[in-house]
Amino acid sequence: MVVTFSNQYGSGAVAISARVAELLGCELVDRQLPVVVAKRLRISPETVEASEDTLPSLGERLLSGLELATPELAESSAGAPFDGEVLSAVEDAVREYAQRGDAVIVGRGAGAILGPRPDLLRVFLHAPRAWRIERTIEATGADRKSVEAEVDRVDRARAEYLRERYGLTFGDPRNYDLCLDASRFDADACAGLIGAAARARRA
Known about the structure:
The chain is α/β, with parallel strands linked by helices. It has one domain (27-202): Rossmann fold (3-Layer(aba) Sandwich). It has 9 helices and 5 strands. A 5-stranded parallel β-sheet has the order 2-3-1-4-5, sandwiched between helices. Helix 1 packs across helix 9 (187-202), helix 2 (32-41) crosses helix 3 (45-52) and helix 7 crosses helix 8. The longest helix is centred in the last third of the chain and has 23 residues, at 144-166.
C-alpha cells in the first residue's frame, strides 16, 4: 500500500503523515528523498535541497519547523527554472519507493507522478486559510503579516508547480482519492480516517 500526501500550507501534513505511517506500519518517505537523489546524481544533499527551493526568506526560516521543504517552492523564484535532472531523479525515486510498497510519501508531486492505481491512496489535506494562518502563528510565533504572505506564497507555488509540470489543478478533488478538511478533526482523527481509507483500499 502507498499513500501520498498533497496539502495546503499549514494544514498539518507533516504530523498527520507521520501518524498515518505509524498506523499502517509503512515507511515515511520525506526528508530521505534528497539524500537518495544526491547519491544518484553524485552531488550533495544540500545541492538537491538548493535545487528544490530558493534561499529562505525570514518568514521561511521562522516557519521551517512546521512544514518541510518541497520542490514546488522552486517555482516561486524569480524565473529560475527547476533543474530538470533533479526533477527526473525525484520522480524516479518516488516510483521506486512506490514499487517497494508500504510507503507514505509526502509532497513532491508524488500523487501526480504515480497517478491513479489500485494500491495507491492519494490524499489532499486542506483547511480554511484563516485557520491555517492562526495555527501557523501559534506553532511558530511568527508575526501575522509574515505568516499570511508565506501561506499564500507556498499555496501559489504548489499550484503553479502541479499545473506546469503535470497539467493538474492543485486541490481539484478529481486528482485525489480522499480530500480532508484538517480543521474539522485533530491530527489523530485525521490519521485515523486516512488509515481506514488506506485499509479499505488494501482489502
